[in-house]
Amino acid sequence: MPARMQISASLAALMSAAAALVPEAQAQTTESDARVSYRFNDYSEDALAPGPFFGDAERYRVLSQQFELSTPVAGDRALDVTATHEIMSGSSPWYVVRGAGNRPIQVMSGATIREHRNEVRAAFTQGAGTTSSTTWNASYSIERDYRALALGVERSMPLSEALTLGVGGSFSHDRITPVDAQLFDRIEHASKNTASLFGSLAFVLDRNSVLQTGLQLNAEHGYLSDPYKLVDVGDAIVDDTRPDRRGAAAWLVRYRRAFGADSAALHLDYRYAQDSWGVVSHTLEAAWYQALPRQWRIVPSLRYYSQQQARFYAPFFLDPGAHNTFSSDYRLGTFGALSATIDARKRLGRWEFSAGVERYHAATGYAIGGSDAPVPGVVSYTRAFIGLDYLLQ
Amino acid sequence: MTPARERLDLHLVRFNAMGCPCALQLEGEADAIARAAAAAQSEVARLDAKYSHYRDDSLVARIGAVADAGASIDVDDETADLLDFAATLHAQSDGRFDITAGALTKLWDLQSGRVPGGDAIDRARARVGWDRVGWRRPTLTPNVPGLRLDLGGVVKEYAADRAALACRKAGIAHGVVDLGGDLAAIGAHADGTPWRAGIRAPRAADGAIAQIELARGGLATSGDYERVMIVDGRRYSHIVDPRSGYPVESFASVSVAADSCLVAGAAATLGMLLGLDAGYEWLCALGLPFLCIDAQGGARGTLAR
């Protein structure tokens, strides 16, 4: 008789036994949940490696806070609004001079800056939680010297039961008005436009695995140089000068596989990118999602990145030759990086706590094919993050 | 009915499957509707062919042959998940819910209009019992010659959920699947309003005794008013208690709403098997929205007004 039955546990037992047969019933319930989230991120670059340099060895530190609200609005429509505030401080690589024996010496920006950035982002989805959905998004970011507006749309549609097509496009307009422009003879204001298109195909391989492949095309036009960087050309210090156009293409492959009734999952991602400046990069990432008893989940991940330098990159230029574009920005040099992240989450009723740390280490010798021209400004960093989510319904 | 505001075209597709009238109500673009309707019907047909106990070529028939031969069979993942689910229901119901009761259900063939003799019932009961079956995923060892599976109360509800999923995969976000009164929502109407489902009054050809709103999940009804036999003034339902070998005297119908039609159907069947008092208590404690209708047409439960 019912007295013998575990009444309060009955529903839990039924639902957990049904989860293997109708997992989407659970997914439907969780995906349409409304939640508010808070995230705090501490990104801290390592001080410049021992060696000759000028200026302040302390590099960038960025503290960011993010509030996010995601909620279903009517039926399968969902709205997601994110507000971000960042405080940036520290000094950054300014230019590289030629030292004795052609040894590059990094010059850091003298003043330690302290800047703020604010961003709002909104996304509206129709068909949330289905394979046929459309998402419109818009974002606006503002700093003392920089404003960026971006608009985009993404659409996903099933072609058959095992194949889903994704397409999308975005456009952004950025405007820069460098600080102390007259003092340092910088450009007073400039802008750039970026247009992106992408398409992807996702194949359901079996009930536990999905393979996705995609292509992204990017076109930038306008002022693409960094107004705060200079470059040593034939012992004259001139402005960082890059082409005013850049085309880029990226190809990506993603593999997802679930193990043991969704208690664990493997994510493998690879991305190849190439641009008209000659920069070629490879990114390989592996993440393991592991559910643990008492509503814990941990996600360790590893990432490897390798990049070949832009045609107009050098730490310094002995002779301008016939060239009219020059940059010694470390981000355009040849280097590789290894990164390890651990992320832990714990659910407690309607609350979810998360915390994690990432260690990113970059070096010219990590690049595929070994190092190229020296990159004295190459940067490593540590990032720590915590978060708190509250489920509203 | 709710007013039709900014609704996409609503299409009604009727078909017969699993021995009952079925319908799909779909909102969306014409090509997606055609794709979804075909995918949903073929999914229901696939499950009917695989798990029907009326067909000689089904997996259920093959398991019957394995039982007679005293052998074992390795089953596929989907069947293993269904057997695991049935094992949970068996444990939750103190053995009242038993998918090995096929011999008893066949004996109580309600179309024949007669009550089986006591000897026949005892012989059938000897061929029933999930607790006598060896089940270690993926290997099923029936152990009992003459044992027959009956996945009624599980497969039709599961098929409704699977048909709803097939529609979502085909690009339909708004609609509802109806397999002989067991409903699975694909998603609310395009304007966000929920579907309205009526629960029919037993033994009355017309009129709904209650209406419930369904935007997601499922609604399932277990009841004897569509398949009932009256002999010498006693009503026999189609739900047999495998422990006694006789149909239960219970509600005229039990309806339950849940996150999936599968869970709703299991809860409704268990509520029915437990009988009037215990079933009502169990459903109250379960915490899902439900409605019980007794033989006199009286309605109780959280969905009753």
Describe the structure.
The complex is a heterodimer of chains A (393) and B (305). Chain A has 393 residues and is mostly beta strands. Helix content of chain A is 6%, strand content 60%. Chain A has one domain: monomeric porin ompg (Porin, Beta Barrel). Chain A has helices at residues 7-19, 23-31, and strands at residues 35-45, 53-54, 61-74, 77-90, 93-98, 104-108, 113-126, 133-143, 146-160, 163-176, 190-206, 209-222, 230-233, 236-239, 245-259, 264-275, 280-292, 296-308, 335-348, 351-363, 381-391. In chain A, a hairpin with a 4-residue loop joins strand 15 and strand 16 (264-275). Chain A is elongated, with a radius of gyration of 24 Å. Chain A starts with 6 loop residues before the first helix and ends with a strand. In chain B, 50% of the residues are buried. Chain B is 34% helix and 24% strand. Among the domains of chain B are: 1-53 and 152-179, ApbE-like domains (T-fold); 54-141, ApbE-like superfamily (T-fold, Orthogonal Bundle). The two termini of chain B are 18 Å apart. With 305 residues, chain B is α+β, with helices and mostly antiparallel strands. Chain B is built from 8 helices and 15 strands. In chain B, strand 4 (134-136) and strand 5 (139-141) form a beta hairpin. Chain B has helices at 30-51, 59-69, 77-92, 102-107, 118-125, 155-169, 261-274, 276-286, and strands at 10-17, 20-27, 73-74, 134-136, 139-141, 174-179, 182-187, 195-200, 208-214, 218-223, 229-231, 234-236, 253-258, 290-293, 299-300. Chain B is globular and about 55 Å long. The chains are: A mainly beta (393), B alpha+beta (305). Chains A and B meet through helix 1 and helix 2 of A and helix 3, helix 6, helix 7 and helix 8 of B.
